[in-house]
Amino acid sequence: MTEEEFEKTVEKALNDLPKEIFEKMENVAITIEKRPSPEQLRKSGIRAGNLLLGLYQGIPKTKYGRGFGNILPDKITIFQEPIEKLARSEDKIFGILKNTIFHEIAHHFGFDEKGIRILEKKRKLEER
């Protein structure tokens, strides 16, 4: 998939998420990179052989408070190559993107990994 095609698929996945999520998101930039840097892998605690599909960097909304004006936006990075390694079709790439974006946005709203797993299970049940 070309970078442009991948970018359009990311945009489609973003638009496919519930509208109320976007209405509550603040100060977040979503970027696309080919692959995570060694530093991003190290800071994320990703073990050799595992893939990092997305990365949230910022201050979750639950931590906002006084003095939080004029801060840099949170950043959600989506990594193209690891996602493509997991999925060989555009439909599968789209599904992985939706899940990855949902996961990283949940971090923006203050959820930790355990909380996100609970949200993801609930979301899968609702989609049935």
From TrEMBL:
Q: Look up the signal peptide feature and give its range.
A: none
Record InterPro entries: Zincin_1, Zincin_1_sf
Q: Which Pfam families match?
A: Zincin_1
Q: Name the chain's protein.
A: Metallopeptidase family protein
